Amino acid sequence: MGFLELFSVASFPVIKVLLLTAIGLLLALDNINLLGKDARNQTNHLVHYVFNPAMVGGNLAETITYENVVLLWFMPVNILVTFLLGSALGWITIKLTRPPKNIEGLIVGVCSAGNLGNLPIIIIPAICQDKGSPFGDPDVCYQYGMAYASLSMAIGAIFIWTYVYNIMRISSSNVQKEGNESSDSVTLATSEDVSESPIEGCSENINSAYRLLLSKNESEQEVKVRIFDKIMHKCGMILDNPNFRGVFSPATLGAIVGFIVGVVPKLHSLMIGSNAPLHVIEDSASMLGDAAIPITTLIMGANLLKGLKGASTPFWTIIGIIAVRYIMLPIFGVVIVKGATHLGLVQVDPLYQFILLLQYALPPAMAIGTIAQLFGAGESECSMIMLWTYALASIAVTLWSTFFMWLVS
């Protein structure tokens, strides 16, 4: 296929994304307010807990087998490389542009974490269903493309909530420590005075004497209760930790279920296929999963409205982030993926190679905004960065998708 034909194939998915994003932005305007803050929160919960797990689990269960899992081992490695390279380039961007301290973690986050879930799941079906697609039969392309994109979403969520989450957490805590040094010193001096007071010393002696008066059985029971309470408290802290909940997000749990159903032959034959006894479960999951793509795109457009009202972000910092995401990372991606293919580490599947390459040329993950909200660091700046990176994605993703399709076809 010629370059212009490939360009038209690559442009249609991006145009669809832009149209749905524009509708979401329109629905979020104050005059209309159909996707206001409360509506976005509720819809986000539906997508997060219902639609995404159904889509990810259903697609993986239908297409993933034990043989496929062995062949797809390079995708987690490839995603990890995108995060590490993006972090290094983000650190260089910070050194060159010297942004405010409070958004340094945010810059590393947006440079390292791409939108590995929503955009591939939107782009791949549109490319597969186009008449000029270079990936062969539309049904086969759609089936395997959605499985690859679903796997990308699940792995990306794990890396975002383990790697990027902790980078932004550490950066936010460091900024807070620097800002509270004077108050910390006053608090420390006060606490030292209190600790040396005779009343506290007396209370400690009374407590120790009381323990000596306890009977042996009572003290043993007290110790057992305390150990049990500590264990339950630790378990509660782990389950309530956003880092833990992010790793085992509903989409990740859906991916795990889909893997199990796909890899175990008996479960696969029981649930997958028109002749399967329990195929109604697969049909129900597919019906729910089909709603994820349009709703997610509308919410993405509504979230970008905050960027129009956000605080100003340093101009050269935004330019640096755009250069990292749309110039440097895709170039590195071509070298890495083609090198791995040449060494025999990646299967000779044009669609699979295309998705591996696409993972280097995507705008920042929308989950970065959630993490920024969680720590209260750079929320308005994050909205501004998202606005510009997603506005330019219409050009950058189209051009890189065209080049990637030409490269693998």
UniProtKB/TrEMBL annotation:
Chief subcellular location: endoplasmic reticulum
Reported function: Involved in cellular auxin homeostasis by regulating auxin metabolism. Regulates intracellular auxin accumulation at the endoplasmic reticulum and thus auxin availability for nuclear auxin signaling.
Signal peptide positions (record): none
Stated name of the protein: Protein PIN-LIKES 3
Organism: Pisum sativum
Membrane topology value: Multi-pass membrane protein
Segments crossing the lipid bilayer: 6-29, 72-94, 106-127, 147-168, 247-265, 317-339, 351-375, 387-408
Domain of life: Eukaryota
Keyword Aminoacyl-tRNA synthetase: no
Entry annotated with the keyword Transmembrane helix: yes
